[in-house]
Amino acid sequence: MIDIPISSKYWQNWQNSVDLLSSFSQCAVVVRVVNASGQYCPKLSSASLNNHQVLEESCIADLANNSHILKWPSRAVFGYLSLCLDSEKTEVNPLNHSEDRDIVPVKLEPLLALCIKNIELELSEIYREHQHKNKLERGPIASLEDVSLQLFIDSLKEHIWIKDTSGRYMVCNQSVERAWGKTREEIINKTDEELFVADLANQFIQADHDAVDTGIQITTGECKGQNEDVDKYWLETSKVPLVAEDGELLGVVGVSRNISQHKAVQEELEITGRIFENSVEGVLITDRKGEILETYGAFSEITGYSKDEVVGKNPRMFSSGRHDKAFFTELWSGLIHKGKWHGEIWNRRKNGAVFPQMLTVSSVFGEDGEVRYFVAVFADITLQKRSEAELAHQAYHDPLTQLPNRMALITLIEQDIRHAEVQQGHLATVFIDVDLFKHINDSFGHLAGDKILVELAGRLTSHKGSEDTLARIGGDEFVVLLPQVEGNEELTLALSKLRKAFEQPFFIDDKEPIRLTASMGVSVFPQDGKDSYTLLRNADSAKHRAKLDGRNSYAFYTESLTQESREHLKLQSALHAALDKQNFHLVYQPKLDFVTMETTGFEALLRWCDPVLGNVSPAKFIPIAEKTGLINDIGLWVLKQACQQGVKWISQGKKFGRIAVNVAGQQLQRTSFVDEVKLVLEETGLPASALELEVTESFMMSDPEVVIRDLQRLGEMGIELSIDDFGTGYSSLSYLKKLPIHKLKIDQSFVRDLPMDHNNSAIAKAVIALGQALNLKVIAEGVENEAQAAFLRDNGCDEAQGYLYSKPMLPEALNDFLD
Questions:
Q1: Are strands 477-482 and 354-365 parallel, antiparallel or unpaired?
Q2: What percent of the chain has pLDDT above 70?
Q3: How far apart are CA 812 and CA 421, in angstroms?
Q4: Cis-peptide into 755, omega within 30 deg
Q5: Could you tell me what percentage of the chain is helix, strand and coil, using 3-state DSSP and rounding each to the nearest 5?
Q6: Which stretches does DSSP call E strand in 553-649?
Q7: Closest CA to 298 of 378, 192, 218
Q8: SS3 at position 145
Q9: pLDDT in tens, 556-571
Q10: In whole angstroms, what is the distance from residue 428 CA to residue 515 CA?
């Protein structure tokens, strides 16, 4: 719109004209003027409009030939003059050509035209006065005789042209010629219809009309350039009416400028804006003073605040109160010196909930190098923190029992060691190993075993002290950390409470109750170790000592146990090479009939003579071989050697009964064991009737159904079977009577104190009676004196074996026992 001040004198004149027109037409008359926003606002009126309709311009145009539009002398729109009718009297509209009021339009038309003409004449006068005033204020304009208009516009890279009032091009510069690909002669005196296609020409002509109607410079639009020499570029076209000093319209001036760079920046900003708006992170922008200017992305979703609630405020409104002054000092230091700060921060949502954020704050600098804005990008990491906590729990806890694991235990021990060092106190680690738990898994399955372990963890937790820590470090192994131990009495009391966890039986579904025992080893800080590794290692050593002492007990660590561990490692290393280096050999101990004292057979016993370690007791290396898995290869070697010796004796015509070979539990558990025995007999040629296999009682109970099946196959081959060390395990009589066995062997631990020990005497009698009841032969091992032999003979024991008759010897020394 043309913005020229209008004095009250003219407004009063126009008010008089409006009142006269209203009086003559008996209608309300309104003058609406274009404001700065391009809207038409009522400025003058002759009556209230509360109950009137504003006539459409098209209706007025039909009667007044467009004279209702009020224009400046340059043809720019000043406003509209409208007639308003009472909504209840629309049937007497003076502007309608009705038969009853034929004369009214005739009289009204010249008056309406006269009113509009009067206003427009005064608008011309106002315009001339305004221009004259500006001319006086600006002073005289210098004349540039050597600079023509054409030279001036040719010097500019923008496209510049001038059209006259009929739309013909009067002037254009060289940039237009290059862009349009036409010469000046091809453009001048031509209209848009003659130069461009119809749609484009109509678009240009309409833009000219819009510029004239507004009376000021307007931007008509953006379009792609037409120069074929340039791949892509954008033009922005502005148009402004060309008006003489008296206000007369002379034409339209057009200017097009290349806005490709601006367009690219705009597109980048739009893309950035879309990214911000669609970001899963929240974005907050403040000025240099910290006043919030804008928010984007997931800001509202994360914080709960809308944009209107935070704009103009300081981000301190989100403070959680969790961070001290030093934290924010570091944050601002990073922003000042590095222009960026990144880290975790706790803030508060609108609902008051405190939550963690991953925050990045960046400084935005102006051309002067001073900070203009701060941009904060943040993400809600509540779920991440929760996941991290869960992962940390999993990393430091046993998944089955939810107890601390080995890693957590080591950390806790180190913490308690530092505390004990400061307090000059003591702490203890108790290593707990469930005895023979493998049999539970083998007999009932691992799922049942897991249930028992979970229940055991609960029992141990209820029996430990409130300050103590219970951890599961693997399998059936637990460790209890006692952080404050005053003396041995207190420690012994704690161990007694832990052992109570095993007093009651465990139940699996509807099966028979299962009773468990545990072996425990104890190490104490600082005498048994000054770090977590040493304390755990020494407690484990003590636990092994408790197992060797018969299980179901506890033992304290001593330095001798460490020495035993070192010896154990030496034995283990040498044992791996013993077979290859042929360091093993067999000795044989005769078994005699108690009545006839004739030889009934020989037990093959393994001996190891190491070139470095010397003679190593089977009591030391057999358990190691079982733990390392070497027992399978060693056992097969023993079986082959014994069978070969039997074949040799047979070839010499010597009678020896049967050669008894001990079978380890791991051998019997192998599905290929029976086939291996059969193959050895075939390869050596020893008759099955000359072979006896001794199987330990405890391993026979590990999986009774499988054991019964395999022993039956061995028995069907003609091999005699006996239970070794009978009475030391926990045989079930219901299974015992199903086993295809031929002998029971009383363990030497029950023979040693016969006949003086009443308990051993009772056990020996019971085993003999059991054998007789089941029609099994009973043999006693470890018979070393006549008193023992007499007691066993008098109570019906069938056979004897021991140092009273012969120690184990090499084959060539046994001629006295061979027929």
A1: unpaired
A2: 87
A3: 65
A4: yes
A5: 45, 25, 30
A6: 554-556, 584-593, 599-610, 614-616
A7: 378
A8: coil
A9: 887 654 565 567 667 8
A10: 27
